[in-house]
Amino acid sequence: MMARFQVVLLVGLVMVAAVAALEAGAVVNSGGPQMAKLLDEEGCGQLRNLCPNIPPGAEDLKGLECVQNLSQEQVDALSDECQHQIWSHTLALMDDRNIERLVQKGCPKHYDKFPCTVKSEPGQFLACVIDHRELVKGNGCREFIQRLEYVAFSDYRLIGHFLKDCTRDIEAQGCGRISNDNRKVSQGETISCLQNRLDNLNGECKKGVLHLSEIQ
Q: Is the dihedral of CA 102, 7, 129, 22 positive or negative?
């Protein structure tokens, strides 16, 4: 029960950040067919070299899985621009309507078994799918849902308010960063980037950055 609650909370906080980005006017790539994919971004040529087996135009899910499998040294070697692109695509992937599209595609025979609908409350669609995956008997769909969980930031439950308050500024300042080091706060480098731009941040974001700087 506790594990399920944590997953729901994790997904909910991810979606709070995505909704905040939309409300703030930030450009969010839903990862849909009409949008540029992560490995096709001009600023991520290094990532294409690290993920040579993923074809052009592949879903962001595959690109983000490749990122998860990189060593921390490989992640650190990526340019700031590419790290920001990865951050933005990770956030966008978790958009409720995009998750709905992906689950329809990844679970075509089982999608109708999920009693889930896209709602205004963020994160509920994926949380619902996760809660009801036992309704699926085949392994393929369950594995696909696990893949979606795998690419989400690991500690959104700890930094949800920060993301809600700072998504617009992170996008504007190009400060999205990633980390595969589970011993550290995943957004530590993002916070460090914002620290260097405090005068350009909105009041709530500045407050959140200063608070997280104290507890890192």
A: negative
